[in-house]
Design brief:
This protein is an alpha+beta fold and 420 residues long. The chain folds into two domains: 2-197, no CATH class; 206-412, D-amino Acid Aminotransferase, Chain A, domain 1, CATH 3.30.470.160. The chain is 26% helix and 22% strand. The protein has helices at residues 53-60, 64-67, 117-123, 170-183, 224-235, 238-242, 264-268, 272-282, 291-310, 365-368, 395-412, and strands spanning 2-5, 24-25, 27-28, 40-43, 46-50, 73-83, 89-95, 142-145, 151-153, 156-158, 164-165, 188-197, 206-213, 244-253, 258-263, 320-326, 369-374. Helix 9 (291-310) packs antiparallel against helix 11. It is globular, with a radius of gyration of 21 Å.
């Protein structure tokens, strides 16, 4: 069983060493809809996940064009994972101190078996851990997670894996498997976690769609057997056909005050029609389709695609795209359907048309929706690995974005398939 609760009014910084012994107790990130890394909350605006050297380097070397579409990188912390005398497991974050590690600091999620000396030396430099000096947030809940995967939130037990639930069922699987990997048979381990912006923090009821992007999901350093496994998986799903696949989602249902949830296993079974129907379901609540959100989503997707077209040597293998909005917001419900005509034509649906669309995003839309690129453990570019240097932009990812834009435009027009 795991217990995690917020610690109030705790400040950690270099001038306040006496507080280091207390640390900051971590909370589970309850809006995780996909992935196998154990995501934790340091505070309301910061999450952390087990450090992967390649992902860490990638975050620190993101070009400005893409940095605006990724969660803000905030540094590294040491996380003490320890079984307590009362049978719980406590996760506590401390400022990053390389000499304090009692474990091999390599993450379980490393893509390659070896990290370069440059990467390790870079990590051991004066890493920014700005968020560790902040208060741990205004969390009033106590969350207990059993090794079996059941969870107790404020003494309310959640263990039934249903589609409609107050807690996304995926996190039961993540914490059950993740904590077993981390602790194994040891009573205590110290792991490095990377600190990232909590991109759901501005939403009261985050509706989250996780899409696996690109036509290739294996990394350059994956073993041949793993590459073959991923290629088969891609061929049997929309990854190869469309360059986009559902990895997970949750949609808030106001009538029942629950989330409708789907996972990656559901996503692997979908064909083009099924994916379009699922995307349409994401933009629905109990009452109607949120047409007011489609225009800002389409504009932001095009902005991301335009940025990717300008990048050379970058590959985002097995990365995801998060599309988010606030399910608690009812603004825009009375949008007139003729406003959908304001969605400008897409200038990049064909390979021959490379012109950028002049339409720009309304700053107000960034409050209503958000789209971020995440999960860079298998991403690469020429400065990361001289052995594998790819030419030109990531056409597989761009192909996926183009098809995603097509699907969303079909939904905006009432699910009338466009000519293909």
């Amino acid at each position: 069983m795991v217990i995690m609760s917020c610690t109030h009014n705790l400040q950690l910084n270099g001038d306040d060493v006496h507080n280091y012994g207390r640390g900051i107790a971590l909370e589970p990130f309850v809006h995780q809809v996909s992935g196998r890394a154990t995501m934790m909350c340091l505070n309301e605006t910061t999450v952390c996940k087990p450090l992967n050297y390649r992902e860490h380097f990638f975050y620190k070397s993101l070009p400005q064009d893409i940095k605006q579409f990724a969660p803000r990188y905030k540094g590294v912390v040491n996380v003490n994972i320890e079984e307590t005398p009362d049978g719980y497991v406590a996760l506590t974050a401390y400022p990053y101190e390389p000499d304090s590690l009692i474990d091999d600091c390599k993450s379980d999620y490393d893509v390659s078996t070896d990290s370069s000396e440059e990467e390790q030396e870079d990590l051991q430099s004066n890493e920014s851990t700005e968020e560790i000096s902040e208060q741990s947030g205004n969390c009033d809940t106590r969350i207990k997670v059993r090794r079996t995967g059941s969870m107790c939130v404020d003494d309310q037990h959640h263990s039934v894996h249903t589609n409609n639930t107050t807690v996304n069922p995926w996190i039961f699987k993540v914490y059950k498997e993740g904590l077993q990997r981390q602790l194994q048979s040891k009573p205590r381990v110290v792991k490095q976690f990377i600190l990232l912006e909590n991109v759901t923090s501005k939403f009261r009821k985050p509706c989250v769609l996780d899409l696996k992007m690109g036509t290739r999901i294996h990394g350059d350093h994956d073993a041949e057997a793993k590459k073959m496994h991923h290629e088969i998986k891609s061929a049997q799903s929309t990854t190869q056909q469309l360059g986009v696949r559902l990895a997970g989602m949750q949609v808030y249902q106001p009538k029942s005050d629950t989330f409708f949830c789907l996972d990656k296993y559901y996503g692997r079974k979908l064909d083009r029609h099924g994916l379009r129907s699922t995307l349409r379901r994401f933009f629905q609540d109990n009452y109607r389709t949120r047409h007011d959100l489609l225009r800002p989503v389409l504009l932001r997707l095009r902005s991301i695609r335009d940025s990717l077209k300008r990048l050379r040597t970058y590959r985002f293998y097995s990365s995801s795209l998060l599309i988010m909005y606030d399910g608690a917001s009812t603004s825009g419900y009375d949008v007139e359907l003729n406003t959908l005509d304001e969605i400008p034509p897409d200038g990049g649906d064909t390979a021959d048309n490379q012109s950028d669309n002049p339409a720009t995003e309304d700053p107000k839309d960034r409050v209503r929706i958000d789209i971020r690129m995440i999960d860079f453990a298998k991403s690469t570019h020429q400065e990361m690995d001289s052995k594998y240097v790819h030419d030109g932009p990531d056409h597989g990812y761009i192909f996926g974005l183009t098809n995603l834009i097509k699907l969303l435009k079909e939904i905006s027009k009432g699910d009338s398939p466009s000519s293909e």
